[in-house]
Task: inverse folding
DNA sequence: CGACTGACGCCGA
DNA sequence: CTCGGCGCCAGTC
């Protein structure tokens, strides 16, 4: 299994109403310190996978796309639609950050 | 082959 | 608070 695929699988586990950081996704995929790989993998992900890409933000809680860009707007709207509070492009990670159960990960992922 | 490029993250100035 | 520098690595050229 390639690294991109590992990342895509972890992204599918992020529940509605939560957000996760690029670095967190990489860590959970067994690729510590490779946040940039997550951004790359998301950019290359086939549309057909229907990944909840908008639930991935920077570790600071900020939407990664340039403020005002089409993608940033779409991401913001979709998050709000799921109940996530988004002030401008800032999200409160303490409240909406995904904190997965270790048992869930062990069950869902089989690397 | 090397150089450059990201939807990043952390640390120091 | 903002920058800048560096580590990161799979593609792309």
Result:
């Amino acid at each position: 299994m390639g690294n991109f695929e590992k990342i895509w699988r972890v992204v599918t586990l992020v529940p509605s109403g939560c957000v996760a950081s690029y670095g967190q996704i990489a860590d959970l995929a067994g690729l510590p310190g490779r946040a940039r790989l997550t951004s790359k993998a998301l950019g290359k992900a086939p549309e057909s996978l229907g990944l909840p890409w908008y639930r991935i933000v920077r570790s600071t809680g900020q939407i990664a796309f340039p403020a005002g860009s089409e993608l940033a707007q779409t991401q913001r709207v979709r998050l709000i639609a799921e109940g996530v509070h988004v002030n401008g492009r800032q999200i409160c990670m303490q409240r909406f950050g995904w904190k997965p159960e270790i048992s869930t990960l062990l069950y869902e992922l089989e690397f």
